[in-house]
Amino acid sequence: MLRSILLYLSQKQTPKKILTGHALGRRMAARFIAGEELEDALQVVRRLNAEGFMVTLDLLGESVEEAAEAEAACQAYVHILDRLAVEGLNSHVSVKLTQLGLAIDEGLACRHLKLLCACAAKHHNFVRVDMEGSAFTEATLRVFRAVSAPRHVAGIVIQSYLYRSDKDVEELLKCGARIRLVKGAYDEPREIAYPRKRDVDRSFSRLMVMMLSSGIYHAIATHDERLIAAAQEYARAHDISPDRYEFQLLYGIRRHLQRDLLRQGARVRLYVPYGRHWYAYFMRRLAERPANLLFLLRNLFRA
Question: Is residue 118 part of a domain?
Fold first, then answer.
């Protein structure tokens, strides 16, 4: 129930205005968000790289309504890629296609993604296309395929809670795409998504095996220690070296787990979001694990 409420609130403007306009809200978000400006985020990337973590940097924002906003977001990502190259930082970028204009026009999003992929290729970097709510799943896959960037330049995200994901993974593996596997963080109807956690986890495990056995470099994105252990066990049993895949975890969540994986010799990339449009992302993180809300409130009131 709490998860559904938090996801509902993530789409509402009144709580957004209250939370983003109050110092308490910004303090709560700071655990998961690396600041509101690029310089804040780069400082975090430098620190994480020094600790041994790889990073993927996400400029928060989605569902823009004007072409000019999409153009501005695209140029902001070009600037991010330029800065990462200049500083020699070990960080990819992650982008939502609605931020590049997908809800306005697929062609617009396609042109912007092509530009970002060209910039990433120039800098020997990588663009990950995030997956959003199910209303955009098919369009996101169409744009990703249309851009047809080399596998070392662009990859995509698949959500294990959608029934369609088995077929999507099969098709993506045929074209050599690099996939980040996640459970999914949106409120989807049971007609298209598994409603029970155990079924989502089973789907995740099944898709994970398909990906690891493909010989393509993929990302397993979860904080579920059982699923992480299952991936490691499968890799060992099938002589898949730890450098042939990576684990991805969210900045600010399960920090001990992140460090433990590094100590075990795993490749670990942290998803680091920043920007002023942090509200929806923040609420989805709380909804994924409502215990995070209690943890944050408890620590805030101690301060």
Answer: yes
Which residues are tagged catalytic?
130, 180
- Min mean pLDDT across 78-87, 184-193, 210-219, 228-237 is at 184-193
User: What is the per-residue pLDDT for 303?
Assistant: 44
Residue 8 belongs to a domain: no
Residue matched to tokens 């409502």: 290
Number of domains in the chain: 1
CB 293 within 8 A of CB 20: no
266 in Cβ contact with 51 (< 8 Å):
no
Domain of 223, CATH number, reads 3.20.20.220
296 falls within a domain: no
- Can you tell me the distance from the alpha carbon of 153 to that of 134, in angstroms, rounded to the nearest whole number? 25
pTM value? 0.88
What 3-state class would DSSP assign to 50?
helix
CA angle at 107 for the pair 104 and 113, rounded to the nearest 5°: 100
d(CA 166, CA 267): 25
Q: Are strands 54-59 and 91-96 parallel, antiparallel or unpaired?
A: parallel
pLDDT computed for residue 32 by the predictor: 86
Q: Which of 61, 13, 43 is nearest to 278 (CA)?
A: 61
- Closest C-alpha among 196, 243, 249 to residue 220: 249
